[in-house]
């Protein structure tokens, strides 16, 4: 009996040491962080969302550039040449070169454009901006979904970890009682050793859950751009199923509408590009060869340029054909998205209902298992129950409880997938 007690004491010492090491990762009393905190951090730190914001600002600058390009353009130029001739007559013919020329002028040019044409170019910039903003909203939903999914996974780890800690504490209390009853020969040493093996296995599982929780928590911090390797307690996600908007009003469907407007606007730009164009120009300055009274060669000139397209090989029809093809492509994608969206939502709702039904059944199983453990625990204290029966009851309880946790997490993940489409 003395040798056996020494063996069990060593085993208990190793178990307690292992749990002391794992307990330093997450302990009760630590600050609790909520899902909103991680979502806010992810949105603030996302370089993609900042990129979209900068693209919107760049689009505003493009609109200003268009406005400026149709204002009078003022340029200055100076072209000066000298063509010397030698005394023996070598050099350019003076009738051609005039011995040189000196020109310095300031020119003004303005393209004449109709207001509708100008509005169409502005509309291009506006539609680009709206598309960028819509893409930003979709990316924001993607980020929220990813962060929420990882938060739920990590929260599930914490739930299992907390539960298994409670189970281990229960085993510790039972171990003290069984040890005393074994020393009094109420239970055999082999039964007691079987219980210790079960207890040690639970301790190893607890260590594994600690590692899993810490790894998933690190992934959560990584997704949110939080530079921190520590693990904190997580609050209940409190995710509720939200009502979904009409598909035509969602940000996911709006892109198809914007693409349709872009194609329509591009057709207008094609039409405007085949209309006559006119521009006014004027210049003033000094231009002289100094051949005769060069000081009088200050002057000005002005005029108008008109361009009328006549024939370009039917390129206009070709551009219309490209736009028609693009419209058919857009329509195909829209129809496919609509059918896939409806099917996916229906499938997710079906999965949610089945999971909730299963949770109810598992919850009843947990209650029965808990009752069986309580009964066996009382009988164990009086020596009227077998340790093997207690271990079996405990194993069934652990399986049912872990299954309940897994399905609760699955339920939250499904709700998260449905809520993704609520914008």
UniProtKB/TrEMBL annotation:
User: Which InterPro entries does this entry report, sorted A to Z?
Assistant: MdtP/NodT-like
**Originating organism:** Puia dinghuensis
The answer to whether UniProt assigns keyword Repressor to this entry is no
Transmembrane parts of this sequence: none
Organism's domain of life? Bacteria
Name the record gives this protein: TolC family protein
Keyword Nucleotide-binding appears in the UniProt entry = no
Q: Residue span of the signal peptide, if any?
A: none
Q: Which PROSITE patterns would you find in this protein's record?
A: PROKAR_LIPOPROTEIN
* Keyword terms, alphabetized: Coiled coil
- Coiled-coil stretches noted in the UniProt entry, renumbered to this chain: 338-365
PANTHER family per record: OUTER MEMBRANE CATION EFFLUX PROTEIN (PTHR30203), OUTER MEMBRANE PROTEIN-RELATED (PTHR30203:SF30)
Q: What GO annotations for molecular function exist for this entry?
A: efflux transmembrane transporter activity
């Amino acid at each position: 009996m003395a040798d056996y007690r020494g063996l069990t004491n060593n085993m208990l010492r190793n178990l307690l040491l292992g749990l002391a090491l794992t307990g330093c990762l997450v302990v009760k009393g630590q600050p609790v962080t909520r899902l909103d905190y991680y979502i806010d951090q992810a949105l603030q730190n996302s370089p993609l969302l900042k990129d979209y914001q900068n693209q919107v600002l760049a689009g505003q600058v493009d609109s200003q550039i268009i406005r400026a390009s149709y204002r009078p353009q003022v340029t200055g130029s100076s072209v000066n040449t000298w063509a010397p001739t030698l005394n023996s007559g070598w050099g350019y013919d003076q009738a051609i070169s005039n011995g040189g020329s000196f020109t310095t002028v300031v020119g003004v040019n303005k393209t004449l454009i109709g207001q509708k044409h100008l509005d169409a170019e502005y509309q291009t910039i506006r539609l680009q901006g709206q598309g960028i903003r819509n893409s930003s909203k979709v990316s924001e939903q993607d980020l929220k979904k990813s962060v929420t999914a990882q938060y739920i996974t990590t929260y599930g780890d914490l739930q299992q970890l907390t539960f298994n800690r409670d189970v281990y504490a229960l085993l510790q209390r039972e171990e003290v009682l069984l040890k005393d009853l074994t020393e009094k020969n109420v239970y055999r040493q082999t039964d007691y050793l079987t219980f210790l093996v079960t207890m040690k296995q639970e301790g190893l599982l607890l260590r594994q859950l600690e590692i899993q929780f810490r790894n998933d928590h690190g992934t959560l911090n990584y997704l949110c751009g939080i530079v921190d390797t520590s693990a904190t307690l997580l609050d209940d996600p409190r995710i509720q199923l939200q009502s979904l908007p009409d598909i035509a009003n969602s940000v996911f469907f709006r892109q198809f509408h914007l693409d349709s407007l872009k194609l329509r606007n591009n057709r207008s730009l094609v039409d405007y590009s085949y209309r006559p164009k006119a521009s006014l120009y004027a210049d003033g300055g000094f231009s002289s060869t100094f051949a005769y009274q060069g000081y009088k060669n200050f002057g000005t000139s002005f005029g108008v340029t008109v361009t009328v397209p006549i024939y370009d090989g039917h390129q206009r029809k070709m551009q219309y054909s490209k736009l028609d093809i693009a419209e058919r492509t857009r329509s195909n994608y829209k129809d496919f998205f609509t059918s896939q969206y409806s099917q996916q939502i229906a499938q997710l709702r079906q999965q949610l209902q089945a999971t909730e039904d299963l949770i109810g059944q598992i919850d009843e199983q947990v209650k029965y298992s808990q009752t069986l453990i309580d009964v066996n625990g009382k009988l164990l204290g009086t020596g009227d129950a077998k340790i093997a029966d207690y271990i079996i009851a405990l194993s069934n309880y652990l399986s049912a409880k872990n299954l309940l946790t897994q399905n609760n997490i699955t339920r939250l993940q499904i709700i998260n997938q449905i809520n993704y489409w609520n914008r």
